[in-house]
Amino acid sequence: KSAFNKITDEPLKRVCYVGTDPWFEGIACARYLGNKMQSGRIAIVVTSSLQVLIMFQRYRSFVHTLKTEFPNIEIIDTFEAHANFEEAQKYAENVASKVDAIYVTGNSMVPAVGQGIQLANQDETFIVCHNLDAAIVSKMRDGIVASTLLSSTYAQGYDSVIHLFNYICADWKPFQPRLMQKMVTVTLDTLSE
Questions:
Q1: 89-104 b/e (C-beta count within 10 Å ≥ 16 → b)
Q2: Largest CA distance in the chain
Q3: Helix or strand or coil: residue 84?
């Protein structure tokens, strides 16, 4: 509990956290991209802002992993989209011819970045991102999204309710303050699984 209270303005009364760790999400995306490319140039699109803790953690671990494990991949630029679809699309359209891939730190700007890549006629440029929704599936089927990192949002919600019920009814205490969900890299080949 004390770890949670360090990052919030008001002390939390949280039993535990159920979800993924953004730091490890960034690492997983960097390793997928690094293994796929081995060398080349990429750009990063931060869905909102680096002031948002989750985006910052994903970004920092992604950059650190690429620099330490895949030194032949050059990050040429980072763009903070601030949830602006048109600006993200323009950025992707302008940078697509200069990079092999674009890492998107979330899911809401993937359609904009994908559209920018398509408008630039850069069929070889691909996206690595997070989460899975209809827009990402569509861009994956178009060959623009190479992979997305996914954890079960159903399990996050379900497990949280079960843990809370057990805490209230049976005074259950979690074995650790953070119960991590499994992360899965989804590609077009594994999309139907």
A1: bebbbebbeebbbbbb
A2: 59
A3: coil
Residues forming beta bridges with residue 74, ordered by sequence position: 41
- Looking at residue 100, its amino acid is D
Instruction: Please state the pTM of the whole predicted model.
Output: 0.82
**Which residues are 184's β-sheet partners?**
150
The total of other beta-carbon atoms located within 10 Å of residue 161's CB is 11
Task: Please name which of 131, 158, 133 lies closest in space to residue 18, comparing C-alpha atoms.
Answer: 158
pLDDT digits (tens, 9 = 90+) for 158-185: 777 777 788 788 888 777 666 667 888 9
Burial of 39 (0-12, 13-18, 19+ CB in 10 A): exposed
pLDDT (tens digit, 9 = 90+) per residue, 86-95? Answer: 999 999 999 9
Q: Pick the closest to residue 81 from 90, 73, 72, 71 (CA basis).
A: 90
Residue scoring higher pLDDT (100 or 167): 100
pLDDT of residue 160: 73
Amino acid at 35: N
Q: What is the dihedral of CA 177, 181, 185, 188, to 10 degrees?
A: -150
